[in-house]
Model the fold of this input.
Amino acid sequence: MATAAFEEIVEDFEFFDDWEDRYRHVIEQGKAMEPLSDALKVPATKVDGCASQVWLHVQIDGDRLHFDGDSDAMIVKGLIAVLRKLYNGLTLAEVLAVDARAEMGRLGLNDHLSAQRSNGLRAMIERIRETAAAQI
Done:
């Protein structure tokens, strides 16, 4: 299960021949995001378990999840952008039903991220899922 926005990324990735092109595309996704307000970069929004500084500001509107985020590392900011396309706009139940590891695997990300980046990605996914679960 994935949003139409995430499916677009999957389609884009099918055109790339090598990991470096995919890596650049992820970074470009992050550069296209608006930076998170400094007022939202507080301990409550900071994600532990990431090698770089990461903040996720998750909001629930009715039963739909939306979040913004930022990082001091360009690849991580790109991963946040990809996760936004995976999750934003889903209902809380849909968020919990998403197999994020499998969805990200469709992009080939699981095979090319360092162990630290993979741990950080898991920590971001866990924060999103925990926030959704707490609202149900």
Remarks:
- The domain at 4-135 is CATH 3.90.1010.10 (Sufe protein. Chain: A).
